[in-house]
Amino acid sequence: MCQQNALTRIVADGQFLPPKTAEEVIRFLEKELGAYRIAEEDLEPVYLQVSSMNILRGRNLLKEDLEMIVLGIPKNSFNMIYYEPLLHYGAFGADTVLTILIEKKTNYIETESPRLFSEVFLYQGISPYNIENKTLDYNLYCDKIEWYKKYYRR
Q1: Which long-range contacts (CB under 8 A, 24 or more apart) does 95-98 make?
Q2: Which residues are CB-contacts of 141 (< 8 A; sequence separation ≥ 6)?
Q3: pLDDT (tens digit, 9 = 90+) per residue, 87-96?
Q4: What pTM does this model have?
Q5: Are 42 and 78 in contact (CB under 8 A)?
Q6: Cβ atoms of 82 and 116 closer than 8 Å
């Protein structure tokens, strides 16, 4: 079994976490997973175009309003839990770097790894308003907790 990293230990309890800003999430990923920023010019233009469309869908924003940060997740013993399924099924080559995109204004996240997505989504937290009013965000958060417990917590 892979070692647990700090992110996995935090979300494994299945508890509601207080909301965090995109900057807080980015700093945490940089500190705990060794994530590093990838310059926009080092990314495929189609990646940014598709991500932009995904973020803008259903939101009252313009493309120029977006503040996207893309982080690379280094391949090491603590982060292999995010890489292993992608390597196993041939979605990644041995030298492919796992990325996570975070849009700072909306807290939108996108990554190739379902587990990393789940853990960052849960780590982002949920507001007391959403919990008290049982909003759609609350329901999505609860669903993600249950899904995480079913597939990842052992």
Answers
A1: 97/38, 97/72, 97/73, 98/72, 98/73
A2: 16, 121, 122, 126, 130
A3: 888 778 778 8
A4: 0.85
A5: no
A6: yes
